[in-house]
Amino acid sequence: MADVPASRDGLYTIKPITGKGRGFVAASKISKGTRILLEVPLLKTPDSTGDISSAETIVLREVKSLTKDQQRAFFALQNVQGRRCTPVLGIVMTNMLPLGASNSGGLFLEASRINHSCQPNAQHAWNDDLGHMTVHALRDIDADHEITISYISGVSIGYAERQRHLMEAFSFACVCELCSLPLTARNDSDYRLDQVRSIEDAATDLDQVLDHPAKSLSQVHQIFELLEVQGICDISIARACFIAFQIAAMVGDKARAKVFAERAYAARKVLAGDDNPTTIEFKHLAERPVDYHLYGKSMKCYDDSWEAPRGICGEDLENWLWSTDEWSRYSSS
Ligand SMILES: C[S@@+](CC[C@H](N)C(=O)[O-])C[C@H]1O[C@@H](n2cnc3c(N)ncnc32)[C@H](O)[C@@H]1O
């Protein structure tokens, strides 16, 4: 078995948090990108889209196969479902974390104790190569501050929808920093999140990318501006970098594709670590953007000798990166 890089011991303690049951608290200052946790699931749960009674049968079988100590630890996990379902299903539904893009999930004795924030300071990610859940710091976390993840997977949704989802699925009213903004600031925040979603839909529309790649890229630029104002430092950044990479790669603009892939790789590394399969994929694309399967697809004629101007950085680099006047010469329309 491959070596599994360990999480650093003593980074957190699990203790009671007012109004939230128990939760994770930083024991000392944790720097952005630090691996806070690396954990194997106590048990895996089947595809959550399947029928509930067969899911329960499978989970029951899994629970019975645990040792007595593990069973005790399982039944000590929180259950907020009350009488809506059996205790076993209630525990699964309260504590399950997704295992990657599949609909299966996992229960963790430690990771399942991390509470939610709509503006989290940590990110959980399933590492299929390692068979472990990882949790990384998205920004510096001061000692004694709570470590939080988002239970709402990577979509920018507004206050009312977030509250509805968290109440329905996890039975709590969120009072995180974002949900506690004064009304005007909260409305502004909702508007920005709504903009991010609709601009992202437009920017990833394949027909538009193929016919008007410059328009799609300028929309991604707008997404970055909105994320910055919103103070978002989560998986949305890696996703926006990757969308920008895809657009530049489809145009066959190797130089810009490389810069965006490098940024996607750097963002992925922070939230999932260097050993995460997607991070490894992004690293490869940063080294060889031409290996992307849609590279050069949007252009009848493209020039993959484009190079980033030597030695530019800061504002000059940003100006070059987002100005795509050259693309019009190669437009497929
Ligand atoms: C996966 S558990 C998290 C750990 C849990 N607090 C414990 O004591 O084991 C999810 C449950 O924790 C509580 N919780 C998580 N985040 C919360 C938050 N931001 N505010 C209030 N309760 C929260 C809710 O009861 C939720 O259903």
TrEMBL record:
Q: Which domain of life is it from?
A: Eukaryota
SUPFAM superfamilies from the xrefs?
A: SET domain (SSF82199)
Show the InterPro entries listed in the entry: SET_dom (IPR001214), SET_dom_sf (IPR046341), SET_domain_protein (IPR053185), TPR-like_helical_dom_sf (IPR011990)
One Pfam family, short name: SET
Q: Which residues form the SET domain?
A: 7-152
What PANTHER family does the annotation carry?
Answer: SET DOMAIN-CONTAINING PROTEIN 5, SET-6
| Protein known as | SET domain-containing protein
